[in-house]
Amino acid sequence: MAVHDRRNSSAKHRNNRARIGLAAACSFAALAIAMPAHGQSADPSSAQNSESQPAPGVQPAVPSTANSIGAQEAGQPQDEATAPDSNKANTLPAGGGNGEIVVTGLRGSLQRNLDIKRSSVGVIDAISAEDIGKFPDSNVAASLQRLPGVSIQRSGNRGEATGITVRGFGGDFNTTLYDGRRISTGTGGRQIDFSTVGSDFIGQLSVLKTPDVTLSSSSIGATVDIGFPKPFDHPGFRMAASASGSVQDRSGKVVPTAGLLLSDTFADDTIGVLADVIYTHRDTTSNRVSVSGWPGGFYAPCQLQGSTAATCTPTSAANAPADQKQTIVGWYPQQYVVDQEFTKDRRIDGRIALQWHPSDALMLTVDDNYSRQKIVTDIYGVGVWFNQGDLRNVQLDSNGQVLNFTQAGSPTDFTSAINTQVLQTNQIGGNLKWDPTERLHVEGDVSYAKSWLNPNGNIGSQNGDIGYGGSLSNVTGLQINGNSSSSFPTLTTYGPNGSAADYTNTALIGSHVTVNQTQRNTDALKQARLTASWKQDDLTVKIGGQYYEDRFKLLNTSTFTNNFWQAYAGYGAPSGRTTGIAPLPASLYQGTISLNNFIPGFKGALPPSLIRYSPIDYQNFLSGLGNPQTTNIPGFNNIPGFTGSFDQMVDPGSIQDIRERTWSLYMSVAYTTEIGGMPFHFAAGLRNENTHLRSGGQGRLPVSIATSSADPTLLSVSFGPTSTITAKSNYSYLLPSVDARLEVTDRLQLRFDASRTLTRPGLSLLTPVVSVGSGQRVNALTASGGNPNLKPYLADNFDAAAEWYYKRNSYLSVDFFLKNVSNFIVGGVTRQQINGVVDPTTGQPASFAVSQQINGPDATVKGVELAWQQVFGDTGFGFQANATFVTTNKPYDKANISQTGFAVTGLANSANFVGFYDKYGFQFRAALNWRDEYLLQFGQNQNTGQFGSEPTFVNASLQLDLTSSYDINKHFSVFGEIQNVNNNQQSTHGRFKNQLLDVFDYGRRFVFGAHYRF
Fold this sequence. Notes:
- The chain is mainly β.
- It has a 29-stranded antiparallel β-sheet that branches.
- The protein is globular, with a radius of gyration of 30 Å.
């Protein structure tokens, strides 16, 4: 077994002493200057390339950060990088003999990941491809959750992992890079949707939990760097192809996925070309029971169960009778919904990379990455709307949570929608690595990326809403019977006039509202980086600069804006209304969907079925009635400007035009020395970020509110003229860091890291206007306001870790971390009057629930990550296990009903276990992932309560996934997967555990296919 050579001569030590002392002085000087005002950021990549001793095992095939290597290293084939080299101590005898072994496949990938973790000075975890075209998981986020401290968020209706949380910080708190570059996103936020990233041909994922100042310091959670393969990673001709079919157990239809990668080098290995394309198709049918929000407010005693009051008119008036006065704190469900969702997810990923390597000193790479994802979801549902003041026979628990009630006059709506989301991204970039001397390395990188959400004029959501109300409204009863993780509310009475037998009687059903809406966003990102590094023996110095220009444009169009959504509201004659069309043509109806055993394992009773109908056919029928401005159409709701077509109109309040320009300068120093004969690796870095923000929007004020003659729950808002509002702000921060690693023995090492990082505010928070929606509901007037002067979150981060690499491909580690976060952005819902408009239902000035944000309190997050990787000799068996325990000094207080309630979101204990077998060409892996309950966000689908933004909690989850493959020969293999073997369901709740917000049952998915590699 090769061991680290500790016999450095004293002469060499004396010769290096002055140089190392100078580097140390520069490093500590940078820290001393920066710490009083700002913080520090580490350079793990510098340390990775110092003359550190690699771990026993296979040398990493891909550097852990793409920008840390010179032109000569960039051109080194991965095949050579993974070959055994006794001088590098990357081999071990098999079974105690003298032979060397080189492990490939799953165990080889785990060894590379271990080596990257071990040799970096900063805290980094990595996942490597097992071979070209063979990544461990079909979803990038699903792979990342195997790492310590990383957990995922899933799309409820698809079950796909779409985002990650690192050490309790999710969404915008994490930065995702492609080969060291930021990627644009049209989602309307800063984070990417990981389901849009094809994993088939990824080379490596690196999760930097401490910052690399030469990449970015703009992530309090972590920086995720997605590394793609290049032609010179594997010189010569290479091909990888994959094809698979997948089926979700409820959809019952097999859909295809296929990918092809071709790579070749020629002209005496000076030119390389790589191209790949992936087509991915997923179909999912999910069942959902939800409550759109649990607003908090006040009940009057006359509303409570057992009240003997002759009349009940709840009021907040000071001189009201005691039994009519709203004084009892309580919560209620705003809207109860049951629906089934059919989702078709289709994605195309394409990539081309060209490399020119005319000499060892020069490497030019030009690449283009393209992705287009189209998700179409058909939804069929039923919903009932509630108002707190209309509830009677109310039973409350000790928290004020409603357990049982009735409501007279409740309408019932059957909904149908086709939601379409198209997300398209393209990034083109160039990278030049030049080694003018043996010690000096220069790298320049430029790129341009743009993303579009819903380009080319598609409609984002087409909605139909039919039902019965008015004289057919029923006395609806609702019971809440248990915990949101195992129970949903039960409708005790339903149907027109309470007749359950007529629940889906189409002769009584008429038209209600028609909503079309589309969010259209673009995000254009320009970036450039120039870095020079000097390497001499055990010293590396880097200096450089970076420029970002990010331009976000967001707007929403809808039938709310022009009020066309109410054109045929009213439910029609059977409901006793003069507006609305009823009955509707029998040809519109496509049958029903049974709700029997709708959410397996959950208790609660549902109505018998849902009605299937096409919202497009429904809208076409209404449009086919003609132009109500020129023709008398009985049932028309007298909406000005409506000529028969449900055209969308731009909502001025939704328009945002945000430009961020950021200039960064950075410097880092890394070196290796000895302390008491123990190798010591140190890196210090400093990054200055100067950001200039310009935010624009369209402002308009409401001038009147009118009730709807068709539906007493609907309101229409009229506005004054629209004007452009622009605001500017800027901020500058120094972001320093220190990373240190001490090799106590050949197998045991200690780490310490300190840094300051930032996370910029969410885009939706930066609008300079207060926006009032044109479509409102009685007792639910809402508005939202932005704040372009919001400053970034700032975090001072500390890590202390110990790692024991006790045998090949096996280790134990413990990492204690602490984050002191300031400038937390907090908001709430405050009651405000706007422009003096009057609420026609009360005759008083309208009270809007306005959501706004400010920079507020500080908080501390601390925790520990435990990781254990064990391979049992040459048996092929092994496992990975990790657990993260995290806490904060600002937990959520459910008893706090002030407008400014605050808590740290995203924090949850989590654990992962992956057991595997890998030998004789056969691989099998079982992955078990657990995450405890956590606070996702402040805010629910409906935010009309009087106690600020109500919280959304995600219930604890446990999911088991199985994967297996068999190598028929060295070129061809077959594989299979079963995702969500235990049929895990995603559920959320509000302030209290029995406030169900959503439960999604998305079922299992089965995948089978084949890989070919040459």
